[in-house]
Amino acid sequence: LHANFLKQRFPDVHLGFSLPRLQPFEADDGFVTPHPMDDETYLKTVCFVRQQCPDATITISTRESAAIRDQLLQWGLINKISAGVSTKPGGYGHQHDEALDQFHISDQRSFAQVKTAVEAHGAKALTY
User: Fold this and answer.
1) Tens digit of pLDDT for each residue in 97-117?
2) H helices within the chain, ranges in order?
3) What's this model's pTM, rounded to 2 decimal places?
4) Among residues of the chain, what percentage have pLDDT more than 70?
5) What b/e readout covers 16-29, taking b as 16+ CB neighbours within 10 angstroms?
C-alpha cells in the first residue's frame, strides 16, 4: 500500500526494496525471531513485490542462502545482489574481529563466484 501511495504521489520516483529476513545469530542475548519466515514464504513475498511493483529495484542480500539467491536469479525477479560483503563496523579494514558481526552471512561465495552465478542466469554482471 505504501509503494502504491508513493507511486501515485511521486510518479517520477524510482522505488527500491530490500527484503532481509531476521536470521539467527550466535550471540546469547535471548532474542528469538517471533515469526520466522520459511524459504517458500520468502520466495512468495519476493514474487508478490515484483508483481505489485514491476519497475522497482529488488535487492537480495547475503543473508539469504546461495540456493535462494540463485532461484531468484533464475526467475529474473531481482535487480541487485550483494557479494563479498562484511557485516561488521569497519569490516573492510585490516581488523577481522568476528565478535563484531552484525548478522550471519548465509551466502559465503566470493564476488567472482556470485558474478559467475549472475552471468549463468543470463544477466550481465557489472564489476565494482
Assistant:
1) 555 666 667 788 888 888 888
2) 2-9, 39-52, 66-75, 111-120
3) 0.76
4) 75
5) ebebebeeeeeeee
Q: Contact, 125 vs 118, CB < 8 A? A: yes
Assign 122 a pLDDT band (cuts: 50, 70, 90).
confident
- Compute how many other C-beta atoms are within 10 angstroms of the C-beta atom of residue 118: 19
Amino acid at 44: K
Q: Please check whether residue 60 is in contact with residue 19, taking contact to mean a CB–CB distance below 8 angstroms.
A: yes
* Residue 69: count of CB within 10 angstroms of its CB: 24
Strands 80-81 and 16-18, bridge-based pairing: unpaired
Radius of gyration over alpha carbons of the chain, in Å?
16
